[in-house]
Design brief:
DUF4920 domain-containing protein; alpha+beta; about 30% helix; five-stranded mixed beta barrel; single chain; globular
Amino acid sequence: MKRLTTLFAAIVCLITVSQAQEAIPSAQPGVQYGKAISKDGAIDVHALAAKLAVDSTYTGKVEGKVVEVCKKKGCFIRVEREGEGDPILVRFKDYGFFMPQDIIGKTVVLEGQAKVKEVSVAQQQHFAGDAGKNAAEIAKITQPKVDINIIADGVVVVQ
């Protein structure tokens, strides 16, 4: 009986997760995810890096181009940082919303809090796995790194 209950619960979870990704609207200009925001007053990723060089946190809007999305369920994106290192990791407050797979290549404005923090090897490996990296690529991650991380309350697709 216990196995049957566990099997039933697992099936319900799988169905819920598979339908959750289908319910995420396609990334078209004007589509909002999470808290409704406007694009007004957004800074670009270069200005964000400059602000974080002076202060430890930044709360506000940031505009950038999405270069990666979590392949499992859209639980994070990465925003391009041209010529300035690895893309910036953007997660969503309390996993309250997710991104569609077709958001790659779109320009977005996100609102939330950005911080410079150390990302552990385990966290980097976890995100690499969620992004669809193979075992060899994941195994190359052996050192923690200090990088910009953003927790977003809302995202709007600009173009």
